[in-house]
Amino acid sequence: MSTVITKPKVQIAPGLLTELLALTKEEKQVIVHCLFDARFMLGAKIRIWPSTYLYDTGSSHRSELVHADNIALSPQWTEVPHGKVVHFSLLFTGLPSVCSTFNLIEEIDQPGGFTVTGIKRNDSDVYFVWV
């Protein structure tokens, strides 16, 4: 016969509990929806490098790219049809709670990396930018 416990007694070491609560708060993620305009380009191709980061302008914090949707990861390419605006989304690890402005920088060893500076932080951590 099984016993249902309605209110279990759980003891967690105070130091561990503090650490777990801090980790829970740090697990926020940032979503950046990007628009790439190819209305005046012929044969455009885009991709995102894993070395794309969000930099908090008030500290040395760097949020890492976790996932990219609707855009190829380097070395692959996404072809952009002439006359179209392509929408893609980037998911990053969380920014510090004190961050008020950040930059999106694709660090690559060739010209043409995506860069958007001075993005103002909002409560939802969801952003829309032209790249």
Q: What summary fits the major beta sheet?
A: 7 strands, mixed
Percent helix range: under 10%
Question: Helical element count?
Answer: 1
**In angstroms, what separates the terminal alpha carbons?**
62 Å
**Widest β-sheet, arrangement of strands:** 8-7-3-4-6-1-9
Tally of structural domains: 1
Report the C-alpha radius of gyration, rounded.
20 Å
Total beta-strand segments:
9
Which class of secondary structure composition applies to the elements? mainly beta
Order of helices and strands: HEEEEEEEEE
- Low-pLDDT runs of 5+ residues are 1-5
Quote the beta fraction: 35-45%
Mean pLDDT: 86
Shape annotation: elongated
Architecture overview:
10% of the residues lie in helices and 41% in strands. The longest helix is centred in the first third of the chain and has 13 residues, at 14-26. The protein has a seven-stranded mixed β-sheet with strand order 8-7-3-4-6-1-9, with no helix packed on it. A two-stranded antiparallel ribbon has the order 2-5. The protein is built from one helix and nine strands; from the N terminus they run αβββββββββ. The N and C termini lie far apart (62 Å). The chain has 131 residues and is mainly beta.
